[in-house]
Every structure is written in C-alpha cells, then in structure tokens.
Amino acid sequence: MARNREAAGTDKEGWVRADMFEQKSVFYDDIAQTGLHELLESMGRILQLGIIVTHPDGHLLANASNLCSFCAILGGNRKGRSMCAASREASVRTAVAAGKEIFHTCHAGLVYGAIPLQVAGETVAVVLVGNVTLRPLAEEAVARLAVEAGIDREKLLAAAHAVPVWTQERLTMAMAAVRKVMDTVTQLLYAKEELERKMTTLGTSLGLALENARLFRKLQARAAVLERLIEAGRQISSSLDTGIVIESVLESVMDVLGADMCALRLIDEDSGELVLKGSVGSDADLQVQAGRVRVEGTVFGKVLQTEKPVVVDDLTASTREEEVPCYLGEMRALAIVPVLAGEKVLGTLEIWSRIPGRWSEEDVGYLGIIGSQAGLALENARLHLSLREYYWTAVQSVAAAVEAKDVYTCGHSLRVARWARTCAKALGLNEEEQEQAYLAGLLHDVGKIGVREDILLKPGALNGEERKQIRTHPVVGAMILEPARFPEAVVSAVRYHHEDYNGGGYPAGLAGEEIPLLARIIRVADAYDAMTSARSYRQRLGTEDAWEELRRGAGQQFDPRVVEVFQRVAAEGLEVAGNGGGGVLLWIFLARYSFH
Predict the structure, then answer these.
(1) Is 503 helix (H, G, I), strand (E, B) or coil?
(2) What is the pTM assigned to this prediction?
(3) I want to staple 70 with a disulfide (CB 3.0 to 4.6 A). Which of 159, 287, 381, 433 is the partner?
(4) Residue 416, SS3?
(5) In degrees, to the nearest 5, what angle opens at C-alpha 68 toward C-alphas 63 and 73?
(6) How far apart, in whole angstroms, are the C-alpha atoms of residue 267 and residue 349?
(7) 323-333, pLDDT tens digit by residue?
C-alpha cells in the first residue's frame, strides 16, 4: 500500500512538471509570434549592446543579436564556442538561483547583466544584456584566451580593442529599460495564457458562455495592445534623431490609447520649466499657450518629484494639489507619466480626454511603458549626437591637417567641393545630393593623413612603393568617415573618386556606371583643380589647357557627360572656385546641413 501511495505521489509530481513544461512551451511559442526577438534586436542595435534570450538552463532560446566582432570570432571557433556556452550557462544558473538580476563577467572578460523573467513565480527565461567591458581588455588575458581557443592572436587582439567600454551605471540603465519591456511582455503573455486556459474549462451554460465571450474580448483587446506596444517599441527605438523619436512616441500614444490629445515635454535645465517638444490634437494657439509651463505646485511637479504617474479623473473638480498650469476647457481627464532614462528624469508624457474618468490603471501602465521607451530613445539620441559632433570635430581636424601638410594644396578641397556641388546641380541632382557632393569634395583627400609628407611634397616622380602608398588614401578616407555615419553616398564618393571611367583606376577597378555618380563628379573636379594649381613637381596649367586635358581624358579617365557639364558650368561662371581658398572649412557645411 505504501508503495502505491508513493507511486501515486510520484505520478502527481510528474503531472505538475508536465503541466509546467506545457505552459513554458506555450510561452516560448507566444514569444516567437509576438515578434519580441525583432524588438530586442532593434533595441540591441540602438543601445549598441548584445542581447541574448535563453532557457532557464542557459541554452539559447533564439539566436544572439548584435554581438561584437570579438564574440563573433570566439563563436566561430569550436573551442571558443564551447567556452562561451559554459560561461553563459553558469551566469544564467546563478541568476535563476538568485531569483534576481546579476552582473557576470564571462571567461573572455566581457560583462553581462542577467535578468530572470518570471511568470507566476517560475523563471521561464533569462535575458543577457551586455557584450561590453567596464575597462579595456588586458592584452595578456586576450593572448592567453587566443592560445586556449586556438584562435589567431593578432586577429583576436584587434577585435578586443573594438569592444565597447561602458560604465556600470550606463549598463544598469540599459538593463532597466530592457527589463521593463520584458516584464510587461511576459505578464501580458501570462494573462493571455491564463485567459485561454480558463476559456477551455468553462461550461456550456449561458452564464459561462457570456463569461467566455467577455474574457475572449478582453483577451483580444490585450493581445492587440501588446502587438501595438511591441510595434511602438520598434518605431521609437528605430531612429537616433530626436525629432523622429518624439514623432514616433506621440503616434504610438494615439494608436495605443486613442487620446483626444497627447503631448511630450522635456525639462529646460536652465529654467526648470517643462518645454513642449511635440503634441497631437492641439492647435497652434494652444501650443503657444502651453509651450512652457512651470512645475512648482502643479501635477507636473508632483510627477517629476515622485517619478510616478498622476491621474486627474475630472479636471473641473480637481483640488489645489491637482493644479494644471495649462488647463484646457473642453478636456476633463488627464494622465501624466514621467519620461525616464535610468535614474534621470527627462520630462513628462501626458494624455487628455474629454470624458471624465477615461484613463484606467491599465491605460496608465501602457502610457508608462511608452514613456520608458521614449526616455531611453531620447537619451540614446542625445549620446549619439554628442558622439557624432565629437567625431565630426575630429574629422574636421584631420582634413585641415591634411592640407596643412602640403602648402601646394591649400584650399584645394574647398574648391573641389564648390565645383562638385555646382556640377551636381547642373546634372539635375536634388538639393540633398548637391550637399552630399559638396561634403564629399571637402573630405575626398582626408585619407592622406596617413601618407608621409616626404611623399606628398616630393618634387620628382614617385617610385612604385610611393605610388602604392598614395593609392591607399581613398580607402583610408572612407574608413575614417564610416564610424561617424556620414551618408553612404559621401563615403562611396570618397572611396571611389580615383576610379577611371574605362576601369583602369583604383582601388576597385570599377568602370562606367559602376562608379558612383558623385565619385565621377569628384574625379573631374579634383583633376581640374589639380591641373590649374601649382604643385611641387610642376607648374600650373592654364584654363584652356586644363579643359583640353579633360576632353582628351573623356571616356578614358573621366565620365564624358560629367566633363561636358563641368566645362559648361565653368564657362558660364556659375560658381566662383578660383585658386584662392581658406582651407577645409568643414564647419561651414555642418552648420547648415545635418544627416541621420
């Protein structure tokens, strides 16, 4: 009898485990269907972090996204892949055992945050966020790792130098954003599964049938909101442009919550006021009236101080503690949430309705999710802009340094830029393409920073090795520009501006229409200015002689159509691009032209 009871107990435990396994399987299927992996991949690209979702035992639930080249090299090697898997499984098991997020340094020295995802007290998955270091990787440790894994030492060292170095505070802030999105998604999925489970067990009586219908409608509504929230996250995190981020946030609020009006405000750090950055549903007069609002003694101040949402069910009956500094007569209900980036409060996101008591606790929760997504995206946009401005300044310095190395080419890049823009206009290119031609002209020789001065200034003919070094400058220039996210058309023009129309140029030996049009324009403008300027190894040519050289090279070195147009605009005097110049004035362009 005892054996029977023991067997019965074992069977019961087996049923419980089987039921939990089935629940997890449904959960994993639902994750795939919601497109959560695509959302995490998008967040990983914006955050510049690797994001991995695993089973509670550490095995991958989906392919890792946005891994750095260092990890890619390790993962491409059997021994390295085995070491990475063992390290990942150890960190996941530690996080599951602790029941909370932890920081873990892997065998290769990279830092990850491990975030357990729990449903009904059970860990169903773990999200690893990181792929960065808190300090540069030590060369000795990387060298040892290369030997252990059987990987080329120099290749792994080069990749190690490119691993991003973050502060723990910044990583914690990114983890908080990922955790908030994941917690919301898992809870919604769990609610969906619970409702589906209830629906399968309800009887066929009229009362139960009505309950089924109500629950099903609620399930459908929640599922629709979940899909829209995931899509909103994709849209908000897909851009590093502040204006586009704000527009995406407001569109998401209107789509998910159906407000009569919504607005996003950011704190002016000088005055402490909230400044309206975007709104939907308000007219121009209202935008002026509510353009800047004080926060002291208002609901906005309460939100900023407590970092928690505030809901006013009926503005006509609000108390002094609920004072709204920009009250709208026809609006009755208001909900405000903070826009947060980690521990930093950036501003507020608000929704208005003409119906009293319109905003439920669930609505405010959804608004909070969008507010968190907005804060993360806005902070990323700010950091990216700061980094890009820093890099632009560095590129400007490099470009100026190139011309400073060679007194004979002073002003050359500026003149080429002017000729290129004028020629682009005459060829019928739009304004954006004209400005790209101008920028490519300014930067076409930036790669010469890596060429020795004795070669640049050599008065006689170059030998074979010297010509080889000179010919590296287009590719080096493109490599300098790429990290700053210059438009691809500009990078390509710099890379290929020494290609010949007949295929005899460098670096790729492209021919005809294979060569980007901006590169063909720069080729002609560069050659013309070089011929009409004095160099260390020859005197300048006259204008007519230079034009004759261009005509002679048409179809060989140069695009015949570009040569024809270039000579026409030069003859018509549509652009003043004389031999005088002021060096590479990159800031002239950047002051009035931005790209994203």
Answers:
(1) coil
(2) 0.47
(3) 159
(4) helix
(5) 85
(6) 12
(7) 776 656 688 89
